[in-house]
Amino acid sequence: MPKLNEAVAETTAKCSSDEETAAAASSATLAQTAEYSHTHSHSHSRMSSTAPKENMQHGLSTKVALSRLHEEIEKVLLQHEREHDAESCYCKFRAAFMNQYDSPLGWLSIGTTLVTSGALLITGMCWPAICLLAILLLDLCVVIRESNLRRTEIYRKTRHALSELRLAEQHLSDNWHVSNYPHLSNPMSPCVSLQWTYRDGHIVNLPWALLVRGDCIVLRPGHVSPGPCHELQSRRHFSTGEIYGASSAQLGEPPVKPTARAPIPDLVCCLESTPYLDNLRLCLQNSLNRPPTIYNQQRYLLVTKYIQQWGFITALIITLFAGLLRLHGYGLATDEKHNWRHVLIASPAAAVIPLLPLVFPLLWIYMNLWGVARLQCFLKTPQAILEKKTSKSFEDLDMDTPAYDYDSISLLRSNVLRIWTQLWKGDSELLPRSANLVQVLGSISALCCVDKKGILSWPNPTAEKVFFLHNTEEEPQDDGSQLSMSTESDNVNQENQERGIVAEVLDLTHDQHCPFRLEFDDHEWKAHIKSLKPLGLAILLNTCSPLTHEHYAQFCGHVSAVAMLDKDLVPVTNRRCLCELAKQIGFTNHATDRFALEGQLASYRHLQPDVVRRDIRFARQLQLSTKVKVPFPHSLSVVMRENPGGYLSLFTQGTADIILDCCDDFWDGKDLRPLSPQDRKRALDFYQRSALTSYCTAFAYRPLRHGIHGALSGPLHSNGQIAYLELPPESKLRMQHVDKSHCDFEGGHHVKLSHSISTDSLLFSESKDEDCNDVEGCFEMQCHQVFIGMVTMQYQAQNDIVHLVERLERACIRFVHFSKENELRSRVFSEKMGLESGWNCHISLLSEPEPEKEREREKVPTSSKAKETESATGNCKSTTNADTVAIHPSSVQVTCDAVDAARTATPTDKPTDLVGDPEDGPKLSYLLAPPNNLESSKTLSCSAPGAISNPDEFKPPKIGDSQENDELDSSKDSDENAALALESEPNPERHKQRHSLDSAMDENCRSLSTLTESTDQSAPINFDMSNRAKLPRGIENIRPHLEQVDNVPLQVSLFTDCSAEATRQMLDIMQSYGEIVVCLGSSASNDNANIFLQADCSIAVEPLYPQVCQDVDAYTEANIIHNKLNFQRQSRKTATKADESFVSEQLLECGANGSGARAMQSPAHTVSPIYLSRLLNSLPCSIAICRDDPLSLVAIIELSRRFSLGLWNCIQFWACCAGSISILNVLCACLSLPPLITPLLGIYLMCIPVPLIGISLAHIDLDPKIMSRATSKKQTEYDSSAFAFVMWCYGCKFLVPVIAMLLAYWMFMTQSISVTEPTAITDLESANYANFYQCLHIVRCCALFAILLHFALVSITFVHRDHALWQRNPFRNHIWAFTCLGLLLLHGFICSLQMLLDESLQEYLLQLWLPILVLFSSSLLSLFISELAKFQENKVNTRYQRRARLDFGTKLGMNSPF
Description:
By secondary structure, the protein is an alpha/beta fold. Helix content is 47%, strand content 10%. The relative contact order is 0.11.
């Protein structure tokens, strides 16, 4: 790091035009940088005061950077807020009702309400008209206010983030240390976007969202530019997403002998803009573009379309038609004296008033806010109060016993009411208006996770298998603990038995509750402790040595940049923490105290195309749709001096191919043994198979007699100059020129060595006693090593995720993983999570290569590889995932100065002699000749996944019609390279020479089908990896497949080779086919903003950060823990008791009071760089948490389902009551009777009693079956069969009340005509008139109480929708019971009081007892009929649930192989 600081100072010195010293020039240049930032910032006097301080250090200070970030975010936010404020009142009014799904009040509803009010005014009914207009005005105010709050919700959430930024800038950032940022040497993760940046004069690993204009960043080789920037020295410009690489002209051609290569330098660049602003603009512009929820669509279909449109028009037409008939004398002889205003205006108005919106918009809006308030209260309530027993994060208990006590939450109504009040005022933490979390989670059908490392898996891979060679000569043959990896033929088996050499593979199991803890599966593993101890020592001295972390991180950047120019290689960072494995072997923390680091030697090499093809030959049998890339061969050796004694040793770790080429012997646990070709082949087979699905690293060792110094020795003794050793592509064969006369034995002879390990320093007595500093000496130092073993590492799925997948599947919610990795790695990990990974279970979203480009690529001769290199570098994927083995085509450019030189050796007509070629042997340069261009350009990807099922298409293509090629037997272990050489070289003698020399290397090209069963057990790919069903490949083929073939892509749980844009498009496709998608992604990634905005709602998770070693924290916040809370408490020294109780409550939620209680979503009391990054990146998300927060997704889904069912239960009851009252008045008009429910009574019923009963029905008791029910696709469009079923089911429930009320009404009115018998005609008319209205008054008084009684009894069937009345007591819903009882008592008392106070009414009651008996006794019949209807409905729902579950689990498409 000091060297990089010097480079920055030197760079800034060169940029200045002054003729001063380097220090003064550095200050002047940084002053220019500060001036540049001042010219682009606005009025902040605080920046001018910090400018002199800033000039004394590199880059910006934290305060200046946070202030600048605050200003630029506020500037963008103000721009959008001004655009919103500049809109006219008409535009805002129109926006509130423009979207039919967002607004519960439509234009037609407003119009019908106004028309009805006018009609009532015409008839002289002023009070009903005034009530309608007042309610409409209230609805308009609330709906317009909610629309404005919804449109500005993202603005308020951004304002909250700005307030946190301002608080950090002014008060809290002073205590930030370098340790509060992620460690500089942390391994890269695709889930975490970090950038080396100068802050306060130090290089920190800054989260991407905190980068600002004017920041001095360190752009490392192979890394992506976070934004437009320019280098300070050369003014070289980088655009956003551009990869900093090197050209082939800079690196030169692959050498023919070992060569020292200078590392690609880190560049100090200045950012020209703030990268986060692009994501911010995206969020501000697209936050309202989410698809409507299912409940909003159903609400529109039921309430707006069916009731307020169809129902209104139907009731109006029928009543008007009946009124016209009555006016023309065709009505019944009950009432013929009314004028046309009552018949044509008042009667239709009374019929349509129940169908008007009235208080429904208020009911819908505030009930949804209440549901969000309950969920937010649930998230903030400490787990210790709720949980019946402790559980891990994300992990839930058995679904048969509820994991949370919801009754205790319902008792905390004061907190819910407080949160509901905050939501009503506009609180936007959960985005309750633009992304209703409760409605989405209540109807979720797919949980899509777009990030793996640190969220689904542990952030660090752990050791899974240990491979080493073992001698069984002195052990019994039937030892069951050994996994004999014998080779293919019987002869080789006999040879192995004679030699007694077997390959041991020990499996390890990862402790699911600890990120690093391991244990051996074999209880007798200690029998191999002598073979494992050198491995453990090599791990501690090389892999996990803190002194090597910085040098290896720089070496990885160089290797990544070099590998970008080769389309067949990928840099794989397989050097991860293995301390726990060393501890399991028996080493302690002080085992390395006596060793001192003397030097580090980094090596790498390219591969010839024919070797690449051999390495991936057996991958064709896997029948993958994407091309498999080979890990870039590299290694890092450390020279350690042991004290006392001063003995020198070389410990090497790297890819197995380059390690094995450096080894002549192996350690068998007792002695050194020569590494035979068969042993080498076993190790290479294990490595090549393991590298497909895991991360495999090899270890070697040798004693030394001299040390190393110079540039090749690393940063310790190189005086600031570092160089890497690039080996020839076939470096194993190059080692033959090394003098082996000093060796004690010749490789290949089966000679048992008798020397002891104490004399190992005499094995290779090099002629030089001084430290070597030249390339030849360093290369010889790496030769003749002793192979120790290999370790494979794999990312392990977290245990809570496995349980989550299981419980989501039980709830018919599909867990979909969008993997950035290729099919092999993705499917292996999906099996660990519990997802199906067989046939028909995964789809690659990587687009197919165009056939024209493929043909052109095949026609390109090998001599012109520069064009191919340029194409490969131009299509390199911009990703931070160095472990991914797939290449994604992208528009990202790779910066190359001149990609005009070939990466592979240029063929010549005459082979040239190279250094080290034996005089009388074959020319080694012949082995560097390029292969046939057909095979070198052949890709492993197929044009369609359906072709995978045809094995013939994966055979090597015939190159010509030669007789030699036709005689090859492809079913056996054929050597493809030999066949190509046979075709391209007509000289058979020369071919024999090459074949004999390359025989050892040819043994690593066995196909998968020829590997033995024990080898299959050594790598987790012992299943058919082919996707045999005809599924689409590429995102552009998904929608045509769904339209023309089948819907299997919607039922797939794994998508591979996913880019951010492909993931977003796939989410869009899923939503267009009715899926309700919740996205789970990393809040530390800069690629997820668009995906978060596309999903119905999103949950941002701060992933667990990878660690360079388990003893080194990824980052720490111990020095700033609860800094925000402490600052607030200090600023409230005169706090009231209410403030103190609030602070204590906040302490309880965050677990700071020592009770151990933690809320699912802890309040933000610690403001750190990681927290600010999460706050900014999670703006479009409803929930933002840390991975170790005890969030239970299943619990909040269960809570949301319960509330959503209750909400829809309330709406259904309200709609049925409105329809029944309207139908009752329509039938009265058809029978020439006055409306039984007057307009004022109708308004009263639909505004007070019916909504109160409906709200009480929204409470759903805890039911374990809720999370075993399929949500399925709801009815959001008109369907005749579904409409008929709804009318039959709910019509039966409310048919009896309507008929009973109408029958009693008819009996009242017919008996009232014959009550009196006056003498005169005028007396008769007046008596009948008075008698008519007297009876009408009586029946209306009784009808109000009777209809409430009917509604209350029918509502019993709505309390427990899935249970019969005798199965579950409805009075368990105490809210419903008290509501109904109170309403009935109140109206019964009012009705009785009216009867008792009016003496004339008492005379009629004795004569009208029969209609009154029918009116009230029929309510029991209503209850009985409603129960029968519910029984039939439950039968249909049960049948539907079975079918929905069957559809959920069935993935058979029309092209299924079965």
